[in-house]
Design brief:
Largest sheet: none
Order of helices and strands: HHHHHHHHHHHHHH
Distance between the termini: 71 Å
Helix content: over 70%
Shape: elongated
Length: about 350
């Protein structure tokens, strides 16, 4: 038991160290916990100590709910949350005017509020139409215009505090480039592995195709990362937000190029299989040229990801030209067709990288 306690203690200690030192998941969780706590306490103090509301439960809830991952999301959610609460208040008022029994009124309010909350613009907050109506009727506030006004005021105060805390207390800034860098690296490494397979005369098509298919998830993660970076930069007062937005725009251009490469790499792996299986007099020269072309394509992708000049020495273009010469001069029509498939797919990758070839 003592060993288990020590291990948990080490885990907690290492978690805290990572939260302090690294801008990762641990720090995000810690900051969100701090912001949520601050928003709840401030909202509670405002509605109880400043306005002296009697049932001050909505303000801290709304404040915590609106401490979002980005300022834009916090503002959007503020509008939705206030709308859901207002809808719940209206449902409670209308139902209590139509039904005398509190029990029946609660049942009808929950049913009506549930269906009203299904409106798509409420999203996940739609359930609070029914909950707000239930709480208002159960606490007797639906018969008092003053109490109804207090509930609405609490909601708006909580929303304002939640948005303010998100905007002013370490407003989140997300950077782009990490996932895009992994995408670039995986494409580069896969092409280099394919080149090695060509030189050795061994076909690893099944593994290459599997890896190429997995790249689609990297593409999606890279675009998600870029979207978060753009969103966190909007209306964010931190100087780092402007830099994050500019960096995300730079990666957007790269991602547009790289996103069309993954399917082409998969097709290229399929196209290599019959070529590597050919037994012809010049098979070693053909495979060497294909391998050099694949290495050049890998360097092309690496240069695009790093923002360097693309194919400055013309290696990619010259290898493609050499491969085309093999295809056109060969007397083997089957080989010509197979090399044509490799050339076609390679040129798709080259075109996606913005390099013109003849």
């Amino acid at each position: 038991m003592q060993v288990g306690v020590l291990e948990r203690g080490r885990f907690v200690g290492s978690w805290i160290v990572r939260a302090v030192r690294e801008a990762g998941h641990e720090r995000y969780v810690a900051l969100q916990a701090f912001r949520s706590t601050l928003a709840a306490v401030v909202a509670w103090l405002v509605v109880t100590e400043v306005f002296h509301f009697q049932q001050a439960f909505l303000a801290p809830y709304v404040a915590v709910f609106l401490v979002e991952a980005t300022l834009v999301r916090s503002l959007q959610q503020a509008v939705v949350q206030v709308g859901a609460v207002v809808a719940g208040l209206l449902v409670a008022v209308v139902v209590t005017r139509l039904v005398e029994s509190t029990t029946a009124a609660i049942g009808m309010a929950v049913a009506v509020g549930y269906f009203a909350g299904r409106w798509r613009r409420f999203g996940a907050s739609g359930i609070w139409v029914a909950i707000t109506a239930l709480l208002v009727i159960a606490t007797g506030a639906s018969d008092s215009p003053i109490l109804l006004g207090e509930r609405l005021a609490e909601t708006m105060i909580g929303a304002a505090i939640g948005v303010a805390v998100t905007a002013l207390v370490f407003p989140p800034v997300y950077s782009a480039g990490k996932e895009a860098g992994e995408l670039t690296g995986e494409l580069r490494d896969l092409l280099r592995d394919m080149a090695s397979g060509c030189r050795e005369g061994s076909s690893g098509v099944r593994d290459w195709v599997q890896r190429a298919r997995g790249i689609d998830s990297l593409v999606q993660r890279a675009f998600d990362e870029s979207r978060w970076a753009h969103e966190s930069a909007r209306m964010n007062p931190r100087p780092a937000a402007a830099r994050a937005g500019e960096w995300a725009r730079r990666w957007d251009r790269t991602l547009d190029d790289l996103s069309s490469v993954s399917s082409a790499v998969e097709e290229l792996a399929h196209a290599l299989d019959p070529v590597l299986g050919d037994e012809i007099a010049e098979s070693d020269r053909v495979r060497t040229t294909i391998a050099a072309t694949l290495d050049a394509l890998a360097e092309l992708i690496d240069a695009v990801g790093a923002g360097r000049e693309v194919d400055p020495d013309g290696a990619c273009r010259s290898n493609l030209t050499e491969l085309e010469r093999f295809a056109t001069e060969s007397d083997d029509l089957a080989l010509t067709a197979r090399l044509g498939a490799v050339l076609h797919t390679a040129r798709r990758i080259v075109a996606a990288m913005g390099l013109e070839v003849r």
